[in-house]
Structures are given as structure tokens and as C-alpha cells.
Amino acid sequence: MPGLSEAQALGLQELLRVSPVADEIARRFQDAGFRLALVGGSVRDALLGRLGNDLDFTTDARPKQVLKLVRGWADAVWDVGIAFGTVGARKDTPDGGSFQIEITTYRSEAYDRTSRKPEVTYGDTIEQDLVRRDFTVNAMAVDLPGRGFVDPHHGLEDLEARVLRTPATPEESFSDDPLRMMRAARFAAQLDFDPAPEVVAAMTAMAERITIVSAERIQAELNKLLLAKHPVKGLRLLVDTGLAGFVLPELPALSLEKDEHHRHKDVYEHSLTVLEQAIALESDGPDLTLRLAALLHDIGKPRTRRFEPDGRVSFHHHEIVGAKMTRKRMRELKYSKDLIDDVSRLVELHLRFHGYGGGEWTDSAVRRYVTDAGPLLERLHRLTRSDCTTRNKKKAAALSRTYDGLEERIAQLRAQEELDAIRPALNGNEIMELLGLKPGPVVGRAYKHLLELRLEHGPMTRDEAVAELKAWWAAQPRA
């Protein structure tokens, strides 16, 4: 393959070695009179030595012809993307593995000024297909089965320079699909590449154009960015170009003007640091819930900032305001209800640890902390630890020791009682039977009273709970 270094040639050979399906499917297309090429991210990742089992192909065959060629060969076929020229398939291998395959007809996409969906037209050459792709590093192909390297836009040079350029002019590329501006930030985060100056200039000038893209597509790109290896790099690009002002306006809003005495830290920089520190504490791979909470935990500060008479700056109840803002923004980005609930709850709870002073944690306080966090407790631990960005090493060490103490107290109480599933000794049915009640709000109040006693005093026997319930009932006013 002319133009490839030895390492890059080995990379593509490795791709083809571990992907015998590539030649196999290519021969089916060739026998039917069509061309097939490995393309885009698959070629890029092979050259970077990070290829997985997802393979992208492009072809001059039309979607219905592609369906006909893969059926009977693939182990599964789906056509959910066929309206955009893409057919998906799964091909299993003898060793128990499988490849996820997407085959897309040569195409070009363009938006009109009012549409949120791309208009798809099909092309006849691979050169037409490559010029419409987002970046030159994704506009390389390997023609199959002959294995010719196709790189009309010098993507290999840009890959070696770790730079993001567009095959056409950035203005043409971003006008065709404005989401490509967010992809630039995503690839910066994923690959640690830098967009070329003309790309940054076009993103800045055309940022408002992102508003015609659907919330679902924006959310998908934002998630990929946040789950990448270098999310802060991508987020800075979104903020610096003005794109964040349209997709996540709460983020640039964190860049509060400093008061004349600089009595509060830069909330924007602090939030990015918290995100990086939260990532460093992940143990089971990227955690979208934790990363969103870390990024958004202080978004209530701009709305709650007050300059106090003594010269201090306060942000009273910013966690409550921030939780509401988080919920609103995530709804607008069409996140799932469960994820919205979890992230906003973490934002709401992120200051709870600091409400207990210097670590004088009673059993009751520990129980309430664990109960309020529920299944989010481990994430809350990580978020709270990440929220310490002070440069004062003595203060940071003291905070860390205090939180270590809290975790030790939680472990001790767990060993003594069912801390993760705190509930009264009596359930709703037993309360109704003892008090002769029918289902209704009074039963709920009685249950809440017993739960409060459980949190405050710890486990109770059934007899103790019955006595407390009857005492509570006797004290209730009668109509």
C-alpha cells in the first residue's frame, strides 16, 4: 500500500487478518458487480491501533441490493437505518466472536435551512462519498478485496499530525450537517486531536446553526464526548467556539466575573477539575451518571451568588437550584427519566457531607446519609471526594480524612444493621391492621413516623414498633 509507513501497513494488515469477513463479504459484492470498501472510523482506528469489532463499509450498491447480498450470509440483519442508506449486520466467527457491520451506499447529505433531518442522495463513486464525510481522518478507505488505499484528502497526513480538517471547506461541511461541529469536539475528546484553525473559525461563526439539529442527535454526541478519554478538551472547544451556549448554556455561564477581592474560585475551571478528578476515581469504566453530575454539580451557583455585607461571597442553596436546573436541561436534551433522576439527585446531595461539620457523625446522621443516597451512594462518595479542588494541601488532607471517617462509620453500621435497606419493623398492611385503617394518607404518615424513629434510633423490635405506633396514633387529633 503506497504511502503507508511500515507500522501503518501492519495496522491495516492486522485489520484484515482479524477480519476475514471483510474479504468474504467483498467477494460477494464483487461477484454481483459492485464495489465494497472498508471506510471511515474503521480505517482510522486500524491505523491508530485501536480497532474493535465494529466494521464500516461503503458501496455503490443501493440499499435494497445490499440487503439482498448480506441476507443468507450474515447471522443477523437489520434495516433500521435503510432510509439513510445504511444496512446493519452481525457476522459470527468460528472462535465464538462476532463482528458488527454497517454497509452504507455512497451518499451525500445536506440540510435545508428548516429541516432537522438530513436529505440523502446516493452517489456513484467512492470519491463522491469520501468528500462528504466529516473529517479527513475519517475520509480514508481500503478498497476490497484488492486492498487499495484510497486517501484523496490526505487524511493519513492529518492522522499523523493529529489534526482535524474537513475534506470540503469547513463551511460547506458544517452547513451540510451542523452536528459535525459537535463531532469535532467529540473527536478532540476521544482522540486528543486538535481542530485546524479554519475548523475552529467556522465552528465559531456557525455555532447557532446547531439549533436545527434534533436534541436526540445532540445528546448522543454529548454522551460520546463525556465518555471519552479527554472530555475536558472537548468541552473547552464547545465553550470556546460558542457551541455550548446553544447545547449546554449552563456550562459557559459558570465563568462568573471575579469580584474585586477574588474571594471565590473560578466555578467553570473548578467544575472541569471536578470532572477530571471524578474520572480518576472510576473503577468500572466510564460512568455517564457520575460524569454528568460532576460537570453540572455547581450550575446553580450563578443564580444564587450573593455578596454578603462582610465581603464574603455566598451561594446559598445552590445545590437545590442546581438540581432543578439539571433536571430542566437534561429533559430538553431528551435524556431518560431514570438518568435525569439520578444525576439531579447527585447534584442535590453533593454538599450533604459538608453539612455535618468536622466529622462528628452520629449514627442517625450516617443512616440518613445512606438512605438519602440510596443506590447512588458509591457515586456520591466519588463526587464528594472529587469536589475538593483546594490547593491548600493541609485542608485537602483534612477533608479526605473526614470522608474516610464517614466511610468507616458506614461500614461499621452496615455490619450492625441492614443499612442499605432501612425500613420500619412494621409495613403498611400491618399498620392498617393494628389501627383498623383503610389505605390512605394516614397510613403513609404512620409509616413515615416509624421510619423517622428507625433512622434516629436504629433497629426496633416489632413490639417496640407496635408500642410507638399506638402512642403516635393516640396523640393524633380526631375529627
Description:
- There is one protein chain.
- By secondary structure, this protein is an alpha+beta fold.
- The protein contains 23 helices and 13 strands.
- The strands form 4 sheets. It has a 7-stranded mixed beta sheet with strand order 3-4-5-2-1-8-9. The protein has a two-stranded antiparallel sheet with strand order 6-7. A two-stranded parallel sheet has the order 10-11.
- The N and C termini lie far apart (90 Å).
- About 1% of the residues have low confidence.
User: How widely separated are the two ends?
Assistant: 90 Å
> What amount of the residues lies in strands?
5-15%
Number of helices: 23
Compute the CA-based radius of gyration: 29 Å
Major sheet strand order: 3-4-5-2-1-8-9
| Helix vs. strand class | alpha+beta
- Count the E strands: 13
Shape: elongated
The largest sheet, given as strand count, sense and whether it forms a barrel, is: 7 strands, mixed
Mean pLDDT: 87
| Share in helix | 40-55%
Low-confidence stretches: 259-264
Would you spell out the secondary-structure blueprint of this structure?
Layout: H1 6-18, H2 20-31, E1 36-39, H3 41-48, E2 54-59, H4 63-70, E3 76-78, E4 86-92, E5 98-105, E6 107-110, E7 119-122, H5 126-131, E8 141-144, E9 148-150, H6 155-161, E10 163-164, H7 170-176, H8 179-191, E11 194-195, H9 197-205, H10 215-226, H11 231-241, H12 244-247, H13 267-280, H14 288-296, H15 301-304, E12 306-307, E13 313-314, H16 318-332, H17 337-349, H18 363-373, H19 377-386, H20 393-416, H21 428-435, H22 441-457, H23 462-474
Parallel strand pairs: 2-5, 10-11
Antiparallel strand pairs: 1-2, 1-8, 3-4, 4-5, 6-7, 8-9, 12-13
Helix pairs in contact: 1-3, 8-10, 8-11, 13-14, 13-19, 14-17, 14-19, 16-17, 18-20
